[in-house]
Amino acid sequence: MTIVRIVLVAACSAAALCGPALPAQEVAPAREIVLPAAAMDTFFARLGRFGASGAVLVAKGGRVVYRTGFGWADRDRQIPMSTTMGIDIASMSKDVTAVAILQLAERGLLRTTDSLAAHFDSVPPDKRAITVEQLLTHRSGLPQYFVDTSDFARLTRAQALKAILAAKLEFVPGTGEEYSDAGYVLLAILLERRTGLTLESWLQREQFAPAKMTRTFSYGSPALQAATNIAHGYLGEKDAGSPSSYVANADYWVVKGAGGIVSTVEDIALWETALRSGKLVSRQTVSVLLGPGGSDTTAGLAGSPERLPSGKRGWIRTGAQDFGFAAGAIRYADDGTVVVVALNRQPEAMDISYPRTRLLMQLDGFVAGVSPVMPPNGHMVPRTLTRIAGTYMFRDSSTVRIALGVDGMVAEPDGPLAVELFAYSADAAGRARRLALGGKATALLARFCGGDAAALRETLARPSERIEAYLKKNVCADPQAKIRAIGSVPRWWTRTPSQSPATLLEIKTATRTARMRFEWEGDRISAVGGGGIVAPVIRVLATSVPNEFVGYHLGVAAPINLSWAAGGMASDRDRIVLGAAGAERFVARRALPPGT
Predict the structure, then answer these.
(1) What integer pLDDT is reported at residue 300 of this predicted model?
(2) How far apart are CA 383 and CA 302, in angstroms?
(3) Other beta carbons less than 10 A from residue 393's beta carbon
């Protein structure tokens, strides 16, 4: 799942692109920024103990003011993570593609108002009027994905173009907004046709070299295959390998232009500085991208800067893929500060979107002089502490599975109350409402699949034939399907994640088990989909007190206490007690074996 803030709300500028030029954007003079380095070092060291692994960098006016790595780049070889280690930056590659298209516009090779019909033959009638601008801003109507295959499957440029042009539009171009990898792959095809160069060659010559990005590579490039400073990605305890092993050829057109770049936090910061200073495109074109002076009211192609928790304004960019890698950056509007995050380990079964987004918000606090909640201190639980391992059940039959592995102890909740306690550890105010959402969602689905669509339609934030068609295909097609609520978790990319939960559902048929989510805005369903958000898996550390442990949910950025006690008599089972400090505590008892 990716958050990309590229929304055109005003006509673009610069005559070479599509109209009269806006005033050139000036980068604000760099003011001194002082960060609490010691506190930040402690913060990231503790974060690493809870399973996070990655690197962060803060730069101001082109000067690095803080950098650190935490966790392992290669666990087996005990190579620590650092700011010079390469990771797959996933959808952050789209920013690079967007700037490449603006470079072509500056040189008269295209205009952002050009239609597909101006550059491609045999474009179907429904797509002929799609513009370059609409591809850049995810308003083309093209779907997110255009082939049903792995991101790393071999696909030629001709095959990709044919599949994209044959794809069914999600809406009439220009009338909506839907995140689209297909649109950015099409932009990469357009660039190669207009320049006669490969995308990789153009990016190396026109962006990576001018910005002095010596540790940035494209999938399939010989340089990536030869590089030695590339981190491995990890999903829980599983080593998912290095990006250099993903693709060994240049035919990675499933993601080319939409992803496919390996970089470091150091190089990402260099790219940001080069962009803002006019080394990649002119200052006029920077205004097209960011708006004049990063204005709140006159947005560029990157949209208006957001108000961050610190009160500062900035653009948030993130990307993630399925093999443990995620990246993100905040580009501040007022003073040229940039914060960059790279992660190479995602706890298995955890939503890949929220660790990077939450970490960016924590760094925003440090930049603004407001230190975030410090992860608690603790040490790894020894694997010999097997008496605690097992499954514990709450009063609503939801469970927490405690397991010991290579990375110590982890807790995996399953069921409404268990997920609630980990996902909203200290936020009890809306607990009753969130716990009720699972029953509400399952009841709506049961009625809908039984032929009564009225209740669902009344609950949707807006009418959606797509949602109804999705549910009919993925739930109602099997009348014997069993629907179970797993729990509700925050959606971290929203402004009010506690008030905007996603309810996770399990759909089980005779042949498969799938997960689905209902996204809520108040009492209305705003979206329905599969995957993307799953229940949290939490690393648990031991404290100095026997049988007292502490977990730290990377998304909530708040600790949760866990106590364990052995059963006193044969009829009394072992139990755990969960709850945030100062909050209500909940007891779960060891689940009995089936048939007991």
Answers:
(1) 58
(2) 48
(3) 19
The CA distance from 185 to 255, in Å, is 6
What is the reported pLDDT for 500?
77
Is 117 buried (19+), middle (13-18) or exposed (0-12) by CB count in 10 A? middle
In terms of Cβ atoms closer than 10 Å to its own Cβ (0-12, 13-18, 19+), residue 536 is buried
Tokens of 11: 């006509």
Q: Are 500 and 523 in contact (CB under 8 A)?
A: no
CA distance 331 to 55: 17
Sign of CA dihedral 72, 74, 75, 79: negative
Question: How do the domains of the chain map onto residue ranges?
Answer: 379-425+537-590, 431-530
* Arithmetic mean of pLDDT, 2-11: 31
Q: Hey, what are 204's tokens?
A: 């190396």
CA dihedral 26, 364, 1, 188 (to 10 degrees): 20
Sign of torsion, CA 221 227 230 235?
Answer: positive
Type of residue found at 474? N
Global pTM reads: 0.84
Spatial distance between the Cα atoms of 405 and 150, rounded to a whole number of angstroms? 29
Given a cut of 80, whether residue 350 has pLDDT beyond it is: no
> DSSP state, 422?
H
**Alpha-carbon span 417 to 486, nearest angstrom:** 9
Contact between 539 and 374 under an 8 Å Cβ cutoff? The reply is: no
- Average pLDDT of the chain is 85
Give the C-alpha separation, 547 to 565, whole Å: 7
